[in-house]
Amino acid sequence: MAELTEEVRRSLIEVSLAARTNAYAPFSKFHVGAAVLDDRVQITAGVNVENSSYGLTICAERTAATAAVTAGARKILAVAVATPGAAAPCGACRQFMYELGPEATVLLVDSDSGEVQRTVALNELLPAGFRLTE
Hey, is 1 helix, strand or coil? Predict the structure, then answer.
């Protein structure tokens, strides 16, 4: 699990909470914001984007991770996820992020209080995650 300075930790929380306001969740009304810290020491935001064809919905963690990769990142060091009740990432997001940072620090943020309810390593949320090896 990556060691985070208090400044970086606070920035991740603030970015995830701010991003959440831009979530597009007309069906579930469950707005999620995420902030990814990458190997370039940049923080990238993401939100959940729902779709009428439910299977095409994408989670905040994956939009943040794909935006970071698009900007040149190749590794995730940490992610903050802001939801009501500090929900953990879904299984698909866990596997998706595992590819980019199996030991990433995950901050589960309660969007109502703005406080971190749990800090955990990604590989604890997804033990024995899949990695294609050559």
Answer: coil
